[in-house]
UniProtKB/TrEMBL annotation:
This is DNA mismatch repair protein PMS1. Residues 215-353 form the DNA mismatch repair protein S5 domain. It comes from the Eukaryota. Belongs to the DNA mismatch repair MutL/HexB family. Signal peptide: none annotated. It comes from Rhodotorula taiwanensis.
Length: 364
């Protein structure tokens, strides 16, 4: 056997498939780019459940001409210049991998305009290696529309899998957009699927000003009555094993504020059906298996019949977590996670304690 380098095109395809792992990540990256561009209006359009096309249109700042060439090149980003900036980064993207990876696993094109007055933009298309091909002028207002055609065409096994589960995969992607529609105030979201020429609306929210209003727009307004506002501040002891090397140099605790909504254990009816748990770290949706498990466990002590509806944003200091863990950024490494969970459980027990009487009364 001889060791040899894999050719560049193959490397690009291999690594791209790790960043864009499914339809949900593709949509997530595009929606996050729209949010990072300051959009207040984001419209997601699937064609045939996203199999043929995913299109995300925004009214954000648009993309300057001098940035077109580097847009979809690997590790080209306007958001981060060096590793040291990572702790301060406030944008959802920072690695400059999404557009490059989408080029590697699909056909990418866009139209963009930075002009607030002239309704004229430019069409751009991209090669699979991420090189930009500048097209003609198109009529469009300020903002960007990104089109992804035939996702995973270059990865036959994944394409087949996506085709087989298209409906479910689209539902997962919509769940992610829903997570953003709930947590972002001042942004209007719309999701449609064009199926055999017919357009179906899956999500439509106005730009409202509060989490409660967002919740009511996304789900049924009547479900609001069964929700309590969540706002707790935890003083979480810093796990010394994490900062052992620093010889106790760091602070002995870190403040975590949790805001959001949670269903009353005493209101078993009127909650929306299905999985309704949305967790965020500083407004970024994440998949918090251990945190969610802890919340469900405490809730069970007050209501053994159902899982709670939860929308919870964990506001953490930038140095208390690391989002650069997995290529899709959905796994977040929380420092002192065990301590955080212990504090959270205790705080939730206290939070629900007044509810206990109500529920017991109802149960009788
Ligand atoms: P990242 O978001 O990590 O920077 P991406 O590959 O997602 O990497 O995007 C590369 C760059 O393209 C971004 O840094 C941004 O400058 C620009 N960009 C992408 N999408 C948009 C958009 N919808 N509006 C404005 N700029 C965009
Ligand atoms: Mg991005």
């Amino acid at each position: 056997m001889s060791i040899q380098a894999i050719d560049r095109t193959s490397v690009h395809r291999l690594t791209s498939g790790q960043v864009v792992i499914d339809l949900q990540t593709a949509v997530k990256e595009l929606v996050e780019n729209a949010l990072d561009a300051g959009a207040t209006n984001i419209s997601v359009k699937f064609r045939e459940h996203g199999l043929e096309e995913i299109e995300v249109e925004d009214n954000g700042r648009g993309i300057d001409k001098e940035d077109w060439a580097g847009l979809a090149l690997k590790h080209h980003t306007s958001k981060l210049a060096s590793f040291d900036d990572l702790a301060q980064v406030e944008t959802l993207g920072f690695r400059g991998e999404a557009l490059s990876s989408l080029c590697g696993v699909a056909t990418l094109s866009m139209t963009t305009s930075t002009s607030p007055t002239l309704p004229l933009g430019t069409a751009l298309s991209f090669t699979h290696a991420g090189e930009c091909v500048v097209g003609g002028k198109v009529s469009r207002s300020k903002g960007t529309t990104v089109k992804v055609e035939r996702l995973f065409e270059q990865l036959p096994v994944r394409r087949k899998e996506l085709t087989k589960n298209a409906k479910r995969e689209m539902a997962k992607a919509i769940e992610l957009v829903t997570a953003y529609a709930l947590v972002k105030t001042g942004v209007r979201f719309e999701v449609r699927n064009i199926l055999k020429g017919k357009s179906q609306v899956h999500l439509q929210t106005p730009a409202s000003t509060s989490l409660r209003a967002n919740f009511s727009n996304v789900f049924a307004p009547k479900s609001l009555a069964s929700l309590m506002d969540l706002d707790m501040t935890l003083e979480v002891p810093t796990d010394k094993t994490v900062i052992k090397r620093l010889e106790d140099a760091g602070p002995s605790s870190t403040t975590v504020r949790i805001t959001g909504l949670i269903s009353k254990p005493s209101a078993p009816h009127g909650r929306p059906a299905g999985n309704r748990q949305f967790y965020y770290v500083n407004g970024r949706p994440f998949a918090p298996s251990k945190v969610a498990k802890a919340v469900n466990e405490v809730y069970k002590a007050f209501n053994s019949n159902q899982f709670p509806v939860v929308v919870a944003d964990f506001q953490l200091a930038p140095d208390a977590y690391d989002v650069n863990v997995s290529p899709d950024k959905r796994t977040i490494f929380l420092h002192s996670e065990g301590n955080l969970i212990a504090c959270l459980k205790e705080a939730l027990l206290r939070f629900f304690e007044p509810e206990k009487g109500t529920f017991a009364m109802q149960a009788i």
